[in-house]
Amino acid sequence: MSDQRGSGGRAASRRSFMQGIGAAGAGLFGGTGVAQAAPALPPGVSNAYYVYRTEDGYAGGGRYEVLDARENETVFTTSGGQNAHEAFQAAFDRVEDGGTVVASGDTFRFSGPATMGADTALVGQHGTRFVVTPQGRRDSPFPGPNQTNPLVVGHDLIRVRGDNTAVTGITFDANGAELGCHAIQADEVTGLTIANNRTVDGFEMAISFSGCQYVLARNNVVLDPNWYGITSRAATDGLDLKRSTDVTIIGNRVAGMKFNNIAPYNVSNFTVMGNVVYDGGHSLIACSPAQQGAIVGNVCRNLNRFGGDPGGEAGLEIEYKETHLTDAVAGTPEATSYDITIANNHVENCQVGFIARTVPADPDRTSSREEDRPYNFTVTGNAFNDCPTAIRLRSGDSAVVGTNAIRNAETAIDLDDTYTQNVEQGLNATR
Question: Which structural domain range is residue 303 located in?
Fold first, then answer.
């Protein structure tokens, strides 16, 4: 690893590279840093760094370079095919006062995480791919039916630890790792955008945010992570289940995991809207718990049951679950789910379409189903197709369940009279 200025021998390639990549996220260039077009940097982009793989480096094990857009010179070089995180960390460190880091359309092989600070945008180009290096194996506490312990352990690719940050336009490849790794993990961030990314081939949890405010996760494709897709959970001790607020999860496609596809746990003031989620193992969209939000206009289908809490898993879920509570939340009003609207969703081929419930750590403590039940929620305008039980309320208070369309259900609405009260029903159509 070295920190150096470029020499005249590579001046021409640097010039062509700078001419080719242009604005943060706007230029297009080939997989070896060779220019494809020639736009200039736009007004307002004054602090930008470009990370790329040299054309001759790949066959020799890889060499990654960081180019300063203002000076048009190389400021950092690292050798070794799995050291891409060093180059990105060097770029992030140089934009500590705010700026943009652009990744070329190359494959970047990491062997550890790179950490972003405040006021930083990380932008990929067509073909940008970040790849995990496996770190060994260990047993999973919850192996799935198609998994055999020990599973491959990985590492995080991008960690976000500063306000006003964005990660866009990158494919994150877990390379088969299923434990100890996130594609993106953000902690204690105010103002976070994660958009137009793709995660493939693993990750314990693909896109994770903890203790964050003003989060936007938009137009991402998340395929086949191990446990969770887009979630406020984390695979790191001390980060899991920290409370987040003002969260928008919109227009994503999330499929093929063991637990929840979209899991806003311990989240308030949230919207989950216009996502396509399918092929899950537990409830496809789950609030466990969450408050003051809306789940609107999502398509949820094909819940392949991996395991279930009482009442089964569902396309849509709100609940109190004692094992999901941190010390900061336990015993407060935020320990359960309330003030949530579930509207205009399409739920198909799930064992249960929608469920509200209370899950104490001790299943024999039935008093929790009265004391901690979800309340003030509305289930309206949804279509539940081919769900054996369309709507199940195991516990709940002050709820409205109306104007839903229910087709091919064995049980349209299942209410537990012992633990539900003040539930208004009407104009639900069954076919």
Answer: 259-431
